[in-house]
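Input.
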Amino acid sequence: MKYGFHMSIAGKLGIAGAAQEAELLGLGAVQIFAKSPRSWKTRNLKPGEVEGFRARKENLGGLPTVIHASYLVNLAAEGELGQKSVFSLADDLAKAQALGAQYVVVHPGSGSAQTARANALRALELAQLSQSGPRLLLENTAGGGEKLGARLDTLAQMIEGTRLGVCFDTCHAFAAGYHLEEALDGLERLVGLERVPVIHLNDSVGERGAQIDHHANLMEGRIGPELRRFALDARLRDKVFILETPRGAQEDAHNLRVLREWLAHP
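Output.
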């Protein structure tokens, strides 16, 4: 299993600093935002930032890298919001290509599944990615309102016949009402696990089915022992696991200790 945290890119080293922090923590993967997740404003890569990140990435044996798209992106929107969303996502895909990141993760948004699918493919076209470029993954959501992606069958329909894949979030699935073993069986049957390269491993503050997207530290939330069983399922052995748990020295130490104990004593 390759695992890591969602890292900050703040600081003098920028994105390269995320790889440095991953090395210090002994991580085998990393997730970042390529720009502010709550602004439409893009962020130019600093001089030397790409080279610095790629060099550290290579020194760490490749360091699987995920870029998470802006929270403002709504692929299911039309009009101006839809256009802004496509261009913002295309910018993240282009940055992923430049940095050698393997994946870009985005929430589908609220509205029409057909529009979300079309806009996702349009973003890929604008980024001018080849088949060997970063893979765009639609993330399952906690649901609520018109938010897409809470149901696995909807995600399966959205990616059918496309280059798109899925990023599976344990907290979101739990919040949407799934038991994780049931969800994993559903992913295998409806989506195909070869199209689910990235797992967001998070506990949940809210109860099952509460539709609350609020992550907790491993084994300090409401999911319980099924989270461990899910993480250790042999079908997920080759996946990239990203912890989007609360960050801080104590929190990081706790989450790494829990995960490493699981791996040491499966």
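The chain has a mean pLDDT of 95.
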